[in-house]
Write a structure and sequence with these properties.
The structure is a single chain. Helix content is about 55%, strand content about 5%. It is α+β, with helices and mostly antiparallel strands. The strands form 2 sheets. Strands 2, 3, 4 and 5 form a 4-stranded antiparallel beta sheet that branches. A two-stranded antiparallel ribbon has the order 1-6. Strand 2 and strand 3 form a beta hairpin. The longest helix has 25 residues.
């Protein structure tokens, strides 16, 4: 039950602060329901082009820049097409808070936290010690069974897939994850650094991949669910529902504030889908056979 209280607290904080993409976070409860800032669409056409550092996004004849005024360059044409589609889909106003792929690219290029590769790995692995699906309740029995039936198969898959021990616990301290598990999964995450895309420096690729992995882990609060997504063992819908399993149980029993629950679930799905797509697009071939967007 203590975890439900903590989740309720965190849920309230998320609804008040609303960290939704590149739009400004709301800084105080008094501004909690202020609409995100939008600006008028200032371009007619969106296209992509290949430069020395990768693929660039063009808004009419202007090249897209990051918030820190760096040239917006992505490592694969597939990712460039996806980002360009976000910009093309904007209507009279630009709703930047809906453009999750653009936000992830900006984060990768500007690297506001200045984290190193090792710091990113440690941050991701840290979620394993507080993984959502590893913490279990002792009562009520119906929730105990629900957690066992829905979460145990995912943990068993991860243990078999990576040859590690993860387990679960009802202790407030969580399960005791063996040091070897941390080591094996850290090495697996580090393997993403070996992906190299034609014509793009390796450091750029690593930065993009890690932005996506860290983003998804943070959304789901679960390293295990993130591994399931990146390995295509889970769909985005499955991962989102498994992440919110306890909340869904409480809602089925006690009801919910419809707008708040619907908003949280849809936002989680959108962010998780964007992060997962981002990871896979960064690992694709740098070019596609047929361009979906042309000048």
């Amino acid at each position: 039950m203590w975890r439900s209280c903590l989740r309720l607290r965190d849920r309230g904080r998320r609804l008040l602060t609303r960290p939704v993409g590149p739009g400004p976070a709301l800084g105080s409860p008094a501004r909690a329901y202020a609409p995100p800032t939008e600006r008028k669409r200032f371009y007619q056409n969106v296209s992509i082009s290949q430069g020395e550092g990768g693929f660039e996004i063009n808004l009419d004849h202007r090249k897209l820049k990051t918030p820190q005024a760096k040239l917006f360059t992505v490592p694969s044409e597939a990712l460039a097409i996806a980002v360009a589609t976000e910009w093309e889909s904007q209507q009279d106003t630009i709703k930047s808070y809906t453009m999750h792929l653009t936000t992830l690219c900006n984060t990768s290029l500007d690297n506001p936290t200045q984290w190193s590769k090792d710091q990113l790995i440690r941050a991701a692995i840290k979620f394993l010690d507080t993984d959502t699906i590893c913490y279990r309740v002792e009562e009520p029995e119906t929730l105990v069974e629900l957690q066992k039936n829905e979460w145990d198969p995912v943990i068993e898959w991860a243990e078999n897939r990576y040859g590690v021990e993860i387990g679960s616990s009802t202790s407030i301290m969580g399960p005791s994850i063996p040091a070897r598990t941390h080591e094996v999964l850290a090495n697996h995450l580090a393997s993403y650094n070996m992906w190299a895309l034609q014509g793009v420096p390796g450091e750029r690729v690593r930065s993009f991949l890690w932005a996506g992995i860290e983003f998804v882990v943070t959304q789901l609060k679960s390293m295990v669910l993130t591994l399931g997504l990146t390995d295509l063992h889970l769909t985005v819908e499955q991962a989102a529902l498994l992440s919110l399993l306890e909340e869904e149980y409480q809602i089925q029993k006690w009801g919910n504030v419809e707008w708040a629950h619907d908003y949280e679930l849809q936002e989680l799905r959108a962010r998780t889908a964007a992060g997962t797509l981002f990871i896979h697009l960064c690992s694709q071939s740098s070019t596609v056979k047929h361009k979906l967007l042309q000048e």
